[in-house]
Write a structure and sequence with these properties.
The protein is α/β, with parallel strands linked by helices. It has a domain of about 150 residues: Rossmann fold (3-Layer(aba) Sandwich).
Length: about 220
């Protein structure tokens, strides 16, 4: 599978908002079936501890963000998402689990993060880049690097090609029936990260119910 190209995708904010409004009601079920192992491993690798300045880009329904806030109760916790429907679910989840003063959620785009340069110790992003055009990765990763402090950590999880024959099914599905996966597809990021000035610290593959994910941590150059 390593020789397969990254499938082309287009980007429209309105389309993304419409698609995630459609799937928001069952997205947590999908995540528990396919993504939980990757998120748990990323949480371990990210080494979040209290007092950090943390940003999660594309919080979705807040499944990971709630756990990040719990590990950083007196730090700064910012979360953004483009989908108002997903954010509504995230707000309900966080309202049950964390004091309002311990976090902030807002609707915003990953292409133009509403934060000053060199603000955050860590930026977390999961299962977003695999939705977007590969030609946009330099711009997105540059924006991630902009808001991270020098030496800051980027923690990513994304739809990968996998390493076993069974993983090929997901590439086939993404190629022939993309709407079933909200246009997500397997991607590779190593070369894009290097070009954006990141140094990969750790990368591994996770498979859950045959769905392949990569988890990766990288450090912004100083």
């Amino acid at each position: 599978m390593t020789g397969e190209p990254i499938l082309p995708r287009s980007y429209s904010p309105a389309t993304v908002q419409r698609e995630y409004a459609r799937v928001a009601w069952f997205y947590d079920l999908w995540g528990r079936w396919t993504e939980d192992r990757a998120l748990q491993r990323l949480l371990q690798l990210a080494d979040v501890h209290d007092g950090m300045r943390l940003l999660e880009v594309a919080v979705g329904t807040g499944r990971l963000f709630a756990r990040l806030v719990a590990r950083n109760p007196t730090g700064r916790n910012e979360g953004i998402d483009l989908s108002a429907d997903m954010l509504a679910r995230a707000r309900r989840r966080l309202a049950r689990r964390a004091p309002p003063a311990s976090y902030r959620l807002q609707e915003a785009s990953a292409y133009a993060l509403p934060f000053e340069a060199a603000t955050f110790d860590i930026l977390v992003n999961t299962f977003m880049l695999d939705l977007l055009p590969a030609e946009d990765y330099p711009r997105l990763l540059a924006e991630f690097a902009r808001v991270l402090k020098p030496g800051g950590t980027l923690a990513l999880a994304y739809f990968s090609y996998g390493t076993r024959r069974v993983h090929r099914f997901w590439y086939w599905l993404a190629r022939h029936f993309p709407t079933l996966l909200t246009s997500c597809r397997p991607i590779r990021l190593e070369s894009y990260l290097e070009q954006a000035g990141f140094r990969v610290l750790h990368q591994e593959e996770i498979s859950q119910n045959t769905f392949p994910s990569a988890v990766l941590t990288a450090q912004r150059g100083v």
